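Entry for the shared binder. Reason: the reviewer on the internal report wants the predicted structure included alongside the sequence.
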Amino acid sequence: MTILIIIALSILLLLAYVFDITASKTKIPSVILLLLLGFVAKLITDNLTITVPNLNPILPILGTIGLILIVLEGSLELELNKSKFSFVRKTSLISFLPMLLFSFGLAFAFQYFGNTTFKIGLANAIPFAIISSAIAIPSAQNLISRDKEFITYESSLSDIFGVIFFNFITLNDNIGTKSVGHFLLEIFVILLISFISTVALAFLLSKIKHHIKFAPIILTVVLIYAVSKIYHLPALIFILLFGIFLGNLDEIKHIKFVQRLKPDILNGEVHKFKELTTEIAFLVRSLFFLLFGYLIQASELMNVETIGWALSITVAIFLIRLLFLKLFKQPMKPILFIAPRGLITILLFLTIPVSQSIDVANKSLVIQVIILTALVMMFGLMTTNNKNKVETK
C-alpha cells in the first residue's frame, strides 16, 4: 500500500507540473485541473474500494504552509524603490478598498437573507472578498512585467489585508475603542518582530557556511509565523517584509548594516533561496488543491441551493473590480479577470468559529465561487493578445 501511495503521489504531482508548464499555452488555470484531478482520484479510490484515511486534518496544515511560501515567493519578486512608491500606494488601495466594499455588501446580504447579525455575516463574507495569491501569481507569470507586478502586489496585499481584517472581526466580540487600540498594538508588535527577525535571518543567510542553509531559514520563517498566529498577530506582514528586504538588497546596500552582509555575495544566495522557495511552494500548492479536489463531494459541487449565491458573488466581485480599476485608471485586460478565490478563501472558511458560521456560507458555496472565478480568469487569459506575454528585461 505504501508503494502504491508513493506511485500515486508521484504521478499526480508530475501531472501538476505538466499543468503548470502548459498553462501559458492552454490558458487553463492549473487550479481547475488540479481540483478536477483530485476529484477523479477520489472517484477511482471509491470505485476500487480503496480504504483511505481521513485526510481532512491535513488540508489546513498544507494551506498554511502554502500561504507562507506563496507570499514569500511573491514578495521576493517585488522591486521597491522611490519610483515604485506611487505604484505601491495605488495597488494597496486597489487591493484594500474593493475588499472592504465587497465584504460589507455581502455581509448585509447574509444578514438579510441568512437571518444573522451583521458582524457574523461580515466574518463569513471576508473570505470571499480576498484574491488568492496562490492562484493569481502563478497565472500572471506570462503577462507583461507591469501587469505581473501589479497582480503580485495586489494579491499578496489582498491576502494580508484580508487576514488582518478577518482576525479583527472574528476575534473581537465587541468592536470599539478598546479592540481598535489592541489591534494597533498588534500591528506595532508584528512590525517590531518583523524588523528583528528579518535582520537576524538575513545575517544567518549571509554567515551560514554549512551545505544546508536554506531549509533552516524556511523552517524559522514558518516557526515565527506559527508562533505569531498563536498570539493572533498579523504574521503575513512579517513574511512580506522579509521577502521584500531580501529581494531589494541592491536598493539598500548603502546602509552600513547591509554592507556588513556583503550584499553582492548575499544576492547570489538570495537567488538560490528564491529558487528553492518557488520549488517547494509549487509542491505544497499542488498538494493542497489536489487534496481539496479529492475531498470535494459531487453533491457539494452540484448544490443547486448555493449556485444562485455563487453566481451573484462572482458577478459582484468583477463589477466592483471593474469600478475600482476604472477609478484608478488601470488597464482592463487582462487584469480585470485575474481575481480568483482559492487557498486563502478555503483557509479562512475552515477557521470561522462554529459560533459564527452560517448555513448559506458553506463548503458548496466556497467550491462554486472558486471554480467560477477561475473560469472567468481562464476566459480573460484566453482573450488576451499575444503581445501581453512577459517582456524580456
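Summary line for the report: The radius of gyration is 21 Å.
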